[in-house]
Write a structure and sequence with these properties.
179 residues; alpha/beta; 4 helices; 9 strands; 27% helix; 21% strand; globular
């Protein structure tokens, strides 16, 4: 389990369209919102990533960059980017190794064959997770799911970020002592 106020695992991956994302080298004022998605096979992910891209300017106004990540290969990640058609600054990274997904606390699922949209699931893939990583690479917020359903709403995260900024609200859940 990742702990708030503690350093997150590293994350360096190729980006659709060229270049590389490296969390350690991100220069955003208030951090990076990392959205791990299941892959091209997931219709819910496509809708979710469209919403993330729609909210990307609001995050940018608050000093937060956005990134979508999956374990898909370049071809599938490119197809997802084409489906989502981001225009607001959301970057799409691919090639997340499943051991790295586990390091982030993501759940791993096995294939059930073709999904409702007729795209085959990979043999193994990670389930969704959303993390707000501070500029020092410590965890500020994290949410992981075992299913494609019930994910955090990005518009609510923007509102929560406004509150956190206005009130200098610290990352919570940091206590690791005896209970």
């Amino acid at each position: 389990m990742l702990m708030p106020r503690q350093k997150t695992p590293g994350l360096a991956l190729p980006l659709v369209g060229g270049g590389t994302f490296d969390l350690a080298a991100e220069g955003s004022e208030r951090g990076t919102l990392v959205c791990f998605y299941r892959g091209l096979h997931c219709p819910i992910c496509a809708t979710y990533l469209k919403e993330l891209d729609k909210q990307a300017p609001a995050f940018a106004e608050r000093g937060v960059s956005v990134l979508a990540v999956s374990s898909d290969d370049e071809e599938r990640a490119t197809a997802m980017q084409e489906k989502v058609a981001p225009v607001n600054g959301m970057r799409v990274a691919y090639g997340l190794q499943l051991d790295a997904a586990r390091d982030w606390g993501l759940y791993i699922s096995t294939s059930r064959g073709n999904t409702s949209i007729g795209i085959e699931e990979p043999a193994l893939f990670s389930e969704p997770g959303v993390f707000l990583v501070s500029p020092d690479q410590s965890l500020y917020f994290g949410s992981v799911q075992t299913m494609p359903f019930m994910r955090p709403h990005f518009s609510e995260l923007v509102g929560a970020l406004d509150f956190a900024i206005a009130n200098n609200y610290p990352a919570r859940g940091e206590y690791t002592g005896a209970v």
